Amino acid sequence: MNLQDIIRQTFAETLETHQAAADALPPAIELAANNLLGALLGGHKVLICGNGGSAADAQHFASEMVNRFEHDRPGLPAIALTTDTSTLTSIANDDAFEQIFARQVRVLGQGGDVLVAISTSGRSPNILEAIHAARERDLQVIALTGRDGGPLAELLTERDVEIRVPSERTARIQEVHLVVIHSLCDLIDRQLLGIRP
Ligand SMILES: O=C(CO)[C@@H](O)[C@H](O)[C@H](O)[C@H](O)COP(=O)(O)O
Ligand SMILES: [Zn+2]
Fold it and tell me: Are the CB atoms for 61 and 80 separated by under 8 Å?
């Protein structure tokens, strides 16, 4: 197998994962979009967290809510909890890295808000702590996960939504997470602006 074969294999695996996700995920994505829309129309906000590539996804999602996705519309209140390096480093330095999102959820979160927690493994301690904090503050959770959902999946209740990508590879899971985020933005825009399917 040469290097180009490896590239072709990556594309093939990506297509396979996207097809499996297209078969499995639409009901959960629709539910998550409706829950987000309900919270936003009720005057609530969205907090988003993730590590590494998923931190970038959190920021990507927040920017499309606050500014725009494909259409001009009023901005929607969403905050990526991954961006304020002073807050992040002081919490990690003075308390613990596991608390970097949880503390922000406790301080910024109010009942009725939504926490979007992104973790391909469902095992990152700071994401698990953020979900505990969301529970305490009465936030609903929308979790973007992969693999077997990890301990994260066990923390969710009936009120929450898990969108679990059917793959074992972090990169493939992240690629589908971006499609999920764009689908959520699309469904929210369509319903807010009355765009017919
Ligand atoms: O982007 C990638 C890999 O594609 C990495 O930066 C990856 O996001 C990091 O290893 C994360 O720490 C993984 O965390 P998680 O998805 O298991 O919660
Ligand atoms: Zn990556």
Answer: yes
